[in-house]
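To: structure subgroup
Subject: Chain for Friday's discussion

All,

I'm putting the inputs and outputs inline so they're searchable in the archive.
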Amino acid sequence: MAAKAKHAGAGKLLLYLEHFCAPGVIALMKIYNLKRTQWLPISLTEAWNFFSTPHNLEKITPKHMGFHILYKSGTDKMYPGQLIRYRVNGIPFVPMHWVTEITHVQEPLYFVDEQRFGPYALWHHQHHFKEVNGGVEMVDEVNYAVPLGILGRFANLVFVEREVNAIFDHRYKILEQYFSEKK
């Protein structure tokens, strides 16, 4: 009985720490990785122009997610420090606000966006572009963590990982179709 009470207290402590500590402080937070590579029959310039334009994200995000850009700082040209605020349905019909910052830009080779506010404890998304035979190799690499420690790990196991993969599967198909139709 005492062991159960001790364990319940530890759970409350973890929730308290996760609420008041910076992301990454809690040892139970696991960082997940997703990496996708896709060949596109376009030039490096075309790839950069498409992917570095935030409004094109709406074109490649599944419709059921209700993705919509609410605010974008600065101009249409991407730059380090640019903030973009979205509304997205992470859970069907439950709108969430998500703010990302473009933290690194090396035109036309890569850029990085990181979540500042939103559903994840960590979201670090690298977009890399490389000229290859007859086109561009695009690599998306996402490192993410789900909040709430052990509960977040469980949520990732039963829902989050599947959803993140489904988003990138959808993007792959849409991009393949979009750029093959343009040629």
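Points worth raising on Friday:
The first helix runs from residue 2 to 20.
Confidence is low (pLDDT under 50) at residues 1-14.

D.
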